[in-house]
Amino acid sequence: MSRVVSLDYETYFTKKEYSVSKMGNWRYTHDTEFDPYLLSAYDGEETWVGNPVDFNWESVQGDLIIAHNAGFDRSVTERLAELGSIPPYMASQNWQCTANMTAFLADERSLRGAIKVLEHRNLSKEAREEMNGIHWRDLSPEKQKRMLDYAAGDVHECHGLWTKYSPQWPEFEQELSRLTMNQCSRGVRINVPLLEEYIQVLQEVIFTLEQSLP
Question: Per-residue pLDDT tens for 77-102?
């Protein structure tokens, strides 16, 4: 039986321009600003935090990978595999999302909200919020240590939620979660020849309209 391993990335972002909420997973991970500077991993016993390229990816091959908002963490992993920074088999790893689980159980998707509702505790996200527009290389050793501790805490919380509450998550809902993430990862099917035909038609229409302007 495979282990359950919780993974979580910390990536460079700016609230006003370069953010997942504004760009979506694909555009965000394919932008020139993309910088996944920190990975945390926890299997219920051991914790690892550091640069993703330094992680022993072979150690989690075949395990169930969980993450809170796993669609994002999976997209980061797929992009790193595409770039050759991590082994290619990680792009097809088995993933599950604890945010989908807590949305079903408690109507809360955020990790902070889920911990508040289900565990009756307050979870601080201050360390991450302070990383707005700041690269890892620009942090002092003290602030790097703070981010390492923060990342380890989040990955522990995610694993704890899964361990405690996943038995209450119906298998039907888990399968729906998996199928939804797979579909989002694959994207929308497009009839490329027909799309190219429509682009050509639209270009001709635009040209005709522009020529008709006085």
Answer: 999 999 999 998 887 789 999 999 99
Radius of gyration of the chain (CA): 20
Q: Is the pTM of this model over 0.90?
A: no
List, as one string, the DSSP characters of 67-130.
Answer: ETTHHHHHHHHHHHHHHTSS-GGGGG--EEEHHHHHHHHHS--SHHHHIIIII------HHHHT
Domains and CATH numbers, the chain: 4-212 (3.30.420.10)
Length of the chain measured in residues: 214
pLDDT 10s digits, 171-190: 999 999 999 988 877 777 78
Distance of alpha carbon 119 from alpha carbon 59, whole angstroms: 30
Cα–Cα distance for residue pair 92/110, rounded to 1 Å: 25
- For residue 127, give the amino acid letter: A
